[in-house]
Each structure stands twice: as structure tokens, then as C-alpha cells.
Specification:
mainly alpha; globular
Length: 420
Amino acid sequence: MDRRAAALNGAALVPDRRPPIFLLAFIVFIDLCGIGLIIPVVPSLVVRLTGASLDQAAVLGGVLLLAYAAAQFAFAPVIGGLSDRYGRRPVLIWVLVALGFDYVVMAFAPSFWWLLVGRIISGAMGASFAPANSCIADAVPEGERGRAFGILGAGGAAGFVAGPAIGGFLVGLDPRAPFLAAAALAFAAAIASVAVLCETLPPERRRAFSMSRASPFGSLMRFRVSPVVRGFLVTILTVQVAAQVNIAVWPYYTALYFGWTPGAIGASVAMFGVSIAVAQGVLAGWLFARFGEARAGVAVLLIGVADYALIAFAQTPVQLFMLISGGALTYIAWPAMQAMMSRATPEDAQGELQGAITSTMALGSIIGPPVMSGVFIAFSDKAGPVLPGAPYLLAAGLTLLAAVQFMRAARRSAPDPATP
């Protein structure tokens, strides 16, 4: 019996035996949208709860971001391991319900410490990427997984764009409104999951939960024996650190050296998010079908190398807008790597794999911002060499390294069923 046939067993599955991919994409959308919804309200909320000045609030806001990423790093393998033990559907539903209640608590947080605890819980529960992506690995045929993973990635990119825009509007109505909107989205996704989502992991393919494997380092050590998974996890970490240049540096780089207004910066970030959604949701499937995941993944990473290097020396706002959009093509490498890793992983460990991927991404989100910000500050100081695009040159170098790592891992992976 092949993998797909095995995935079809079990009375809990719906007749067509496939998970509703667009519902899973909606769940991922909620994860990213929920984060973005509260971004506009955090500065004023921290000031109100602590009495700090705005610059001090920025430091505390950074603590909240770090706490979220650290919690996601720590808990993603736990969520993935629980989904390997109890199934994807119940874990997703309970995570979404917990996330909804957590946003309600944050809406009425009486102190900064309550808010901090809330962000830690939302980071832990925001690791629903793991069971959502595991549904794809369970029941989507191998040749179609890259496209399906891309659709989930597009859902996350759409949430990245929609969240801050919606939150910015709602905060004008009430400071608690963005949190309550995020809670409503989480509860809506939980209800939709109860009504529509089928279980993709039948009982005979489940395995016992192990805390030694569920820790982030235990999970990553578990995959060191697989050269394919190990190689791609290193690639993911490298690419994620490089990608943080757009989070940590882009607003300051464009404002300081090009005189961009907050509106222009916001428009460029929104366009970047839309470009990622199109790249992963539309172009990825076509490229994988036409060229295969390995060749497409290497090609887009090399495009990313050139794109970062060109941003470092861009001269006009038009060039920057074009380059930030073109850089979204790099994100096509993510679903390519997920598809190849899923084929190299046993059927009963797909949740653990997706947890390890999410933890690796979170680790990159922790490492990347201080590295990129530090390089930007060092090369913007007029007392030393001035090269404001230096962080983008570093990102180009890291992405080139990632392309080499990608090629090495891809050579060891199983043939792509979609390759002509």
C-alpha cells in the first residue's frame, strides 16, 4: 500500500480523503493575521500599562516580539508531536480555541506582565503551522505537496499583509478591538475546523508522544540522522536569518537614506506580502510542475542573492519597489524544501518534522534581527565606513550559502514525482 492509500484509511476521513487545503491556509492566515492585528496597538498599550516613554516602550515591545518567537521555538515540536499522537484535527482545534481565549485575556490585560504572558502563550499556540502542514504531508500525493505547501504559505503571506491594516483601522475604534478581532478569527477557524476538517492521520499511523523528541533540540537532533532533512533545516535557518533584514532594517534603511514616509514604507511592506502570496500560491505550483522542486528551489534562491545585492546599491525608490517585490520569489524555496523533507520522513513523524521546521524558522527570527540591526548600525556610523546597504550584502551572502546547502540536500532527496 502506498502512502496515499495508507492516508485514506480510517473511518474519520471524509469521502474525498483530502484535507480542505484552503481551510488550512485560512488557519495559517489567522496565525499571521493575529500577530499583525495587534502590532499597531502595542506601542500605546505598553505606554498605558507601564507609564514608560515611547522610546522605552519600543524596548518593551521588542521583549514581546522576542518572547513570542522564543515560545514558538520551544513549543512547535510539542504541538507537532501531539499531533503525531492524537491526530491533526483535535490538536488544531484545541490550539485555535486556546489562541482565541489568549487574545481575549490580552485584550483586558491589567499589566505589562499579563501582556507578556499572553504573548508567550500566543507564541506557543501560534505553532499551529506544524499540524496544518502535517495534514498536507499525510494525505496529499507526493507530486502535489509542493503546490499545497505553497498555498499554505500564501495564506500566511496574506495574513502578514491584512493583519496590520485591519489592526490599524480597529485601534481607532477601541484599543482592545484588535485583540478581540484576533480572538474572533481564532474561534471562527476552530468552528470551521470542527465542521469541515477531516482527520488525515489514521490511528494505525500514530505513535507515542515523547518529551525527549518534543523539545526543540531533541527534535532537531532526531533529524540529524537524515542528511536530507538535516541539510534542509540548515538551509531554512540560513534563509530565515537572511530574510530578517526586511523586518529589522528595511523601515530604517528606506526612511534614513531615501526619506520614505511611514505610508510609503507600509505600502512597500504590503506589496512585499502580496508578492509572496502570489509567488507561493500561484507561481510555486507552476514552477514545480514544469521544472521540479529541486531546480526551482535553487533558481529562486540564486535570484534572491542577486536581489539582496541590488537592494544594497539601489539608487531610486522605483528600484527599491521593484526589488522588494522580486525578492518575494525566494519564498518559493520554502514549499519546495517542505515537500522534499516530507518525502524523506516516516509517515508517523510528519508532525515532528513540521514542528522542527517551525522551531528552526523561529530560531532564525530570534537570531536575525539583532544581527542585521547591528550590521546596519555599524555601517551607518559616520565615524567608520558608511555602507547602509551592508545588511543586504550580508543577506545576499547568507542566501548564496543557503543555495549551496540546498543543492547538497536536494541531491540526496528522493526524485520529485512531478519532475518531467
